[in-house]
Amino acid sequence: MCGLVEVVHVINLLDTGLKTYTAMDTLQRELHARIATGQHPNTFLIFEAESTYTAGRHTQQHDILDDALSIIDTDRAGSVTWHGPGQLVCYPLVKLAAPVDVIKYIRAVEGAVLDTLRDHFGLDVGVIEGRAGVWIGNRKISAVGLKISQDATLHGISLNVNTDPATAFAGVIPCGITDATVTSMAEEGVPTTLAAVAEPLTAALEHRLEPLLAPITTEGDVNVYHPAG
After folding, report:
1. What distance in Å separates the CA atoms of residue 90 and residue 16, rounded to the nearest whole number?
2. What is the pLDDT of residues 171-229, one digit of tens each?
3. Catalytic residues
4. Which residues does the annotation list for site: Lowers pKa of active site Cys (predicted)?
5. What total number of domains does the chain contain?
6. Is the pLDDT of residue 101 over 80?
7. CATH value at residue 202
8. Rounded to 5 degrees, what angle do the CA atoms 109, 113, 217 make?
9. Average pLDDT over residues 5-24
10. Residue 227 forms part of a structural domain
11. Annotation-wise, does 158 bind a ligand?
């Protein structure tokens, strides 16, 4: 019998310490391969990274101000950015219904961040036409960098919760945008924890993405990843 998989599996690694970007990238690709073929339920992967710079597909050399930085090339959209302590990273790894509408997916992910920051933390956030992510005026609080392969998604959201403004993003032009700045929830007067943000964010993501998801059918049991420890 084929069973319809409806739940979203959440892998929340926030209480297991800082993670290397490469380890999380390997994990997301393993999950993506299984989700794309119906062997694993749709999954939200949540973590806090060690300090790391990554360069997306649209990175220009002039976006990197410090040539000595170690930068990891990625296949997500967007330019160069930073991940590290105080930043919540969430990868929605889901199978989308065909035909995939990329714009609807991007707007749904951004919408989940908007819902979370407005409804749960009272921040006056919005989007800017022609620019990805979530903003407070000309201050970017959350970046969105995505990829879709085999109708299944990779990469996702980075949300600045309590990053150190003196060190975060130093040495690069974040997202290649020269006429704006980067901010965090703490800098906007909302001190909180990554765990406190993760719960409403995953709920908002599930709500926003549900209309876009493909019904996933599997033969027999679905193998679900459970992190050790």
Report:
1. 15
2. 766 666 666 788 999 999 999 999 999 999 999 999 999 999 998 665 444 566 656 54
3. 175
4. 140
5. 1
6. yes
7. 3.30.930.10
8. 40
9. 90
10. no
11. yes
Q: Is 84 annotated as a binding residue?
A: no
State the pairing for strand pair 9-12/152-160: unpaired
On the question of pLDDT at 146 being above 50, the answer is yes
144 is in an annotated binding site: yes
User: In terms of Cα–Cα distance, which of 212, 99, 78 is closest to 142?
Assistant: 78
Does residue 220 belong to any structural domain of this protein?
no
Spacing of C-alpha 116 from chain mean position: 14
Q: Whole-angstrom Cα distance, residue 66 to residue 62?
A: 10
Write down the residue that tokens 């995939």 correspond to: 100
Q: Which two tokens stand for residue 13?
A: 């690694």
145 annotated to bind ligand: yes
**Is 228 a member of any domain?**
no
Q: Does 219 reside within a domain?
A: no
* Distance (Å, whole) CA 200 – CA 116: 6
Residue 131 DSSP symbol: E
Which tokens belong to 89? 């990273």
Mapped onto helix, strand or coil, the DSSP state of residue 166 is: coil
Residue 11 has pLDDT above 70, yes or no: yes
Domain that holds residue 158: 2-213
Tell me the C-alpha distance between 140 and 136, whole Å.
6
Region 5-13 average pLDDT: 82
Task: Give me the DSSP letters along 98-145.
Answer: SSP-HHHHHHHHHHHHHHIIIIIT----EEETTEEEEEETTEEEEEEE
Question: Which one, of 127, 131, 105, 102, lies nearest residue 117 by Cα?
Answer: 127
